[in-house]
Amino acid sequence: MMSAAEVFGIDADIKVSKIERDEVGELTDHIPEVDPAYVFDTEATLALLAGFEHNRRVMIQGGHGTGKSTHVEQVAARLNWPLIRINLDGHLTRSDLVGRDTIVVRDGQQVTEFQEGLLPWAIQRPVAVLFDEFDAGRPDVMFVIQRVLERDGRFTLLDQNRVITPHPRFRLFATTNTVGLGDLTGLYRGTNVLNQAQVDRWNVVAHLDYLSAEAERRVVLGQVPALKERADGEELAAAMIEVAAMTRTGFAAGDLSTVMSPRTVISWADNTLTFGDVGVAYRLSFVNKCDEAEKPVAQEYYQRVFGSTESD
Ligand SMILES: Nc1ncnc2c1ncn2[C@@H]1O[C@H](COP(=O)(O)OP(=O)(O)OP(=O)(O)O)[C@@H](O)[C@H]1O
Ligand SMILES: [Mg+2]
């Protein structure tokens, strides 16, 4: 047993345990790599730990680039839990998930053989499945998942007359941008309204929002270590986050229709080192993503913090 406070750097008085390597067997390759600079959000991490330790179905909802997918990945990494990320895009079909009949040659004869899809394969193993972009899934595909969402949800392979009991270490997680009620902001095109019976089956729904300025600064400096080495690195990161905060307030107030995600702040920091100019990098990382009419607003945020437009 290890203390969660120590492993994740969060403020919580609980113990967590790792999976032994030999229990994982040949799935070791699927254990995500630890990102030592990762900054954990307390509530989202506790929700995920409930998922891993107590077999709850946990959904993480939040804006783009706030660290939903990587939170699941990094918690799994620290618990030694193999993780399989499945993108629920519009091309994922029922047979990808359930399986299909395939033709194989056996003893010189062509025979049809059922080939297990992702779900029956995963359910029988000590593995966590992450359905990424859960709200983009197609309704017919979603119903396949419905049954396994229940905690002891056995999985019936109709075509096979077979009922599969889940492995005690099988886990299921999802990330979504919307809460399943449709896209109210216009930001998340391609998402669907989710069936409420399905949303109901998720035991824990955590909301991941933008981090505090201090935490975000640690994230940026952690993800772009070369910035930390610069004498003005810390200051620069703090200033960038100030601009990012302005875009978020501006977005909420309706002044701007594009919002700077933590992911964009990280690429801005990266691009600053690549292009050697923080203003040019700002334009290439963020301003050019904005509507023509709103570019002056984005530039004004920059000016307010950096005191000038880009130097060229
Ligand atoms: N708390 C954090 N600590 C360290 N890095 C972070 C953190 N949050 C986000 N990042 C970094 O920001 C980037 C975006 O994170 P991630 O892909 O998890 O976002 P997401 O919420 O899943 O976004 P989307 O909704 O677009 O899928 C990653 O490169 C990740 O390393
Ligand atoms: Mg994601």
Reported for the largest beta sheet, the result is: 5 strands, parallel
Poorly predicted ranges: none
Strand order of the largest sheet: 4-7-10-3-11
The CATH class name of the largest domain reads Alpha Beta
CATH superfamily of the largest domain: P-loop containing nucleotide triphosphate hydrolases
Radius of gyration: 22 Å
Task: Give the count of structural domains.
Answer: 2
Q: What is the CATH architecture descriptor of the largest domain? A: 3-Layer(aba) Sandwich
Task: Give the N-terminus to C-terminus distance in angstroms.
Answer: 55 Å
Order of helices and strands: EHEHHEHEHEEHEHEEEHEHHHHHH
* Class derived from helix and strand content: alpha/beta
Question: What do the pLDDT scores average to?
Answer: 90
β-strand number: 11
Instruction: Give the overall shape, derived from the CA principal axes.
Output: globular
Counting copies of identical and different chains, the oligomeric state is single chain
Instruction: From the 3D structure, determine the CATH topology of the largest domain.
Output: Rossmann fold
What does this structure look like?
There is one protein chain. The chain folds into two domains: 2-208, Rossmann fold; 213-306. It has 14 helices and eleven strands. It has helices at residues 4-8, 21-24, 42-54, 68-79, 94-98, 118-123, 139-148, 196-199, 213-223, 225-229, 233-253, 262-275, 278-285, 295-306, and strands spanning 2-3, 15-16, 58-62, 83-87, 99-106, 109-116, 128-132, 155-157, 162-164, 171-176, 204-208. The strands form four sheets. Strands 4-7-10-3-11 form a five-stranded parallel β-sheet, with helices on one face. A two-stranded antiparallel sheet has the order 1-2. The protein has a two-stranded antiparallel sheet with strand order 5-6. The chain is globular. The mean pLDDT is 90. Bound molecules: adenosine-5'-triphosphate (ATP) and magnesium ion. Residues 68-69, 132, 175 line the site of magnesium ion. Magnesium ion binds at residues 68-69, 132, 175.
